[in-house]
Design a protein that fits this description.
The complex is a heterodimer. Chain A is mainly beta. Chain A is built from no helices and twelve strands. Chain A is globular, with a radius of gyration of 14 Å. In chain B, strand 5 and strand 6 form a beta hairpin. The chains are: A mainly beta, B mainly beta. Chains A and B meet through strand 6, strand 10 and strand 11 of A and strand 4, strand 5, strand 9 and helix 1 of B.
């Protein structure tokens, strides 16, 4: 069975500071890993994903995540956050074989303060 | 290109009633997945429909059922509503099954159901 644990429910940070949102997963099979972002009153949007290849993946708005198989982690980082990054972030695991089933973590609220 | 649209956006029902939620897929997408997001929780997979057939199901009882139509729009039906069914219901579409598995899911804004 697959599961995802997001270690922080809320992460307050000041604007322009670095941030890390932590995600650990468990799976007995090869996995695909994702980070989704949910802005207030909106649906989820894919932020970045790891399917194979390079373990460091990047998004277009400056976020990056590194797949660490030995530590079963997929932490999300950004070197300098903006007010507009305030949102709920969800880590998810998939790859269970064309069932469309993604397993989501409970989410981390990133609160960027001026 | 239109995105995923869901209706209604909000609704209130009482325990024991039945509800139907609707979803229009993103143009060209033939796969629809439904998720339940309780307050303060991550989304939980309910089921997926591909070409009008249920393709996978999460840990939800049979009173949660669905349909997918030839135009790939979809419905989620919940019978005998319980208080714990109060949640945001999210629909997500993808281009083919592989798109869903590789995270290329496009989510709607959801239907918020309150059961009193």
């Amino acid at each position: 069975a697959q599961s995802v644990t997001q270690l922080d429910s809320q992460v307050p940070v000041f604007e322009e500071a670095p941030v890390e949102l932590r995600c650990n997963y468990s799976s007995s099979v090869s996995v695909y890993l994702f980070w989704y972002v949910q802005y207030p009153n909106q649906g989820l949007q894919l932020l970045l994903k790891y399917l194979s290849g390079s373990t460091l993946v990047e998004s277009i708005n400056g976020f990056e995540a590194e797949f660490n198989k030995s530590q079963t982690s997929f932490h999300l980082r950004k070197p300098s956050v903006h007010i507009s990054d305030t949102a709920e972030y969800f880590c998810a695991v998939g790859g269970s074989g064309n069932t469309g089933k993604l397993i989501f973590g409970q989410g981390t609220t990133l609160q960027v303060k001026p | 290109e239109t995105g995923v649209t869901q209706s209604p956006t909000h609704l209130i029902k009482t325990r024991g009633q039945q509800v139907t939620l609707r979803c229009s897929s993103q143009s060209g997408h033939n796969t629809v997945s439904w998720y339940q997001q309780a307050l303060g929780q991550g989304p939980q997979f309910i089921f997926q429909y591909y070409r009008e057939e249920e393709n996978g199901r999460g840990n939800f009882p049979p009173r949660f059922s669905g349909l997918q139509f030839p135009n790939y729009s979809s419905e989620l039906n919940v019978n005998a509503l319980e208080l714990d069914d109060s949640a945001l219901y999210l629909c997500a579409s993808s281009l083919e099954l592989a798109g869903a598995d590789t995270g290329e899911l496009f989510f709607g804004e959801g239907s918020r159901l309150t059961v009193l």
